[in-house]
Amino acid sequence: MTILVTGGAGFIGANFVMDWLAAGNEPVVNYDKLTYAGNLENLASLKGNNRHIFVQGDIGDYDQVLQTLAQHKPRAVLNFAAESHVDRSIHSPEDFIQTNIVGTYRLLEAVRAHFTGLSAPDKSAFRLLHVSTDEVYGSLGFEDPAFTEEHTYQPNSPYSASKAASDHLVRAYHHTYGLPVMTTNCSNNYGPYQFPEKLIPLMIHNALIGKPLPIYGDGLNVRDWLYVGDHCSAICVVLERGKVDETYNIGGWNEMSNIAVVHTLCDILDAEKPRADGASYRTQITFVADRPGHDRRYAIDATKIDRDLGWKPAQTFETGIRRTVRWYLDNQPWVKNVTSGAYRAWVAAQYQ
């Protein structure tokens, strides 16, 4: 028995692979294209582990996906592979169309071809779990109820539109072809190994090197924050006990504005790694022009996964964010290696 994880060298995928192998004996075939955010250094702790089988490949390569499925015969495919950064999607939407829509389509076609050839018992046991985002639901007002699984899709960025399209394709492949699928829609993840383009690792990195902490608009945009380890545990529960053709929203029950998150990070860093001049890291906060189409608020109602599958997050924001800051402080060589010249040029252009 084995599972196949696509995008398993990225932030969430790598955390999932490491947690999966630490918790049990079932091997993982890790299929990743190794883009800028897919990094084998994320998986360094698995070197020499014969239960971790790495395959470099693109989910858009039908033949390679089908060959990998035929060779390893996984009982489940978990699709983490995606272009996932809203800012990048605004400047380069085609990459998101190719990976998140065309890539998901070709992955589905390969899985469908593989599934068709399985025996009846293997078909009954097989699952495709598609990992998606709460951003497909659009934006909420400050007083609106949180997103449930029945919320209408209203994506507002090329990223969220491409993920919405992938969700619809996954659903269609169940209803048209009988593929046994499940979908999860998660809130904003944070934690170890997150590429420093996202809010939390970007702020930690910039704070430590003495650069401005750029905050879009008024900083009052609200997100629900989910510790990546909790997200991974929820996906395991959905894979084990979730129902075919169901969607499960995964949230941390931690709504916070961007400026409150950055203030929290600054206060933790003030205590853990004080500036040489004694000033607070808050003095580095700089407000910049808002990005186009910036959703005001996301909020996940995770009642269904609690009620039906018995999952709740283990970390509060207070415990999770301290773990995260500590990890980045303890792993500065990793940060240095991923923040290349290309990364610095992109950040400079994005937050000029």
Descriptive account of the structure:
Helix content is 45%, strand content 16%. The strands form three sheets. Strands 3-2-1-4-5-6-10 form a seven-stranded parallel beta sheet, with helices on both faces. The protein has a three-stranded mixed beta sheet with strand order 7-9-11. Strands 8-12 form a two-stranded parallel ribbon. The N and C termini lie far apart (50 Å). It has a domain of 236 residues: NAD(P)-binding Rossmann-like Domain (Rossmann fold, 3-Layer(aba) Sandwich), CATH 3.40.50. The longest helix is centred in the N-terminal third of the chain and has 24 residues. The radius of gyration is 20 Å and the shape is globular. It has 13 helices and twelve strands.
Q: Outline of this structure?
A:
By secondary structure, this protein is of the alpha/beta class. The chain has helices spanning 11-23, 62-72, 86-91, 93-116, 120-125, 158-177, 199-208, 228-241, 258-272, 303-309, 317-330, 332-338, 341-350; strands at 3-6, 28-32, 52-56, 76-79, 127-133, 181-186, 188-190, 213-216, 222-227, 247-250, 255-257, 285-288.
